């Protein structure tokens, strides 16, 4: 799964990377090294601009809330539970299937955090130990320092309790698509601990390589089988993972120090 990630690139840089045609400086976000559910995040999408002369899709950098609210939902209360959509079933789940065929996006990140689930920890849980050990967090990022382009979906939700002209009448939310974690060797692996992403956690955000960006964002592509083919996992060996401070476990902590690579797992954690 993906429950936390880092996003520190400037909007100008993201606009260049993704060949964005339109973005609003008023929507600029501060660098966020501990992005958590329900926060506002950057997404890249192709969509026609309202009241524009041409109906053609325009590549945009937008600010959306992380945690998808289906258009048919009675309230947005479940958004924090809708941060991830599984690649294997996204085309058939009622909450995601319409967005999958017409409202796809890319959610740019520096990388994501995952807390290792080790065999020793599972044994303690089975034994019924009351005090659970701290999990060691890892930061997973492209080995070459490039942007981590997560496949995503976005959706519109109308708050019917508010007037049409109310600034909060419309919610635009998003979700990260996840897939099975890679079992092959990492491009750069830590000296000790997990040697593959699957050793850390069985799921991971689905990273889109640049050759798939245009096809994934193209709203004219609506064939389910065609779109499913774009969700194939990227080639193995593109990622690196390294241990970081358990400070990231507290969402109130936020700063570049969270990305500092540790020489090994923190004392008192399982890895």
From TrEMBL:
Recorded E.C. number(s)? 3.4.-.-
- Fetch the Pfam families from UniProt: SRAP
Q: Which GO terms describe its molecular function?
A: lyase activity; peptidase activity; single-stranded DNA binding
**Would I find Transmembrane helix among this entry's keywords?**
no
Q: Name one GO biological process term.
A: proteolysis
Q: Which organism is it from?
A: Streptomyces indicus
- Record's keyword terms, sorted: Covalent protein-DNA linkage, DNA damage, DNA-binding, Hydrolase, Lyase, Protease
Which protein are we looking at? Abasic site processing protein
Major enzyme class: hydrolase
Gene3D superfamilies in the record, alphabetically? SOS response associated peptidase-like
What the record says about family reads:
Belongs to the SOS response-associated peptidase family.
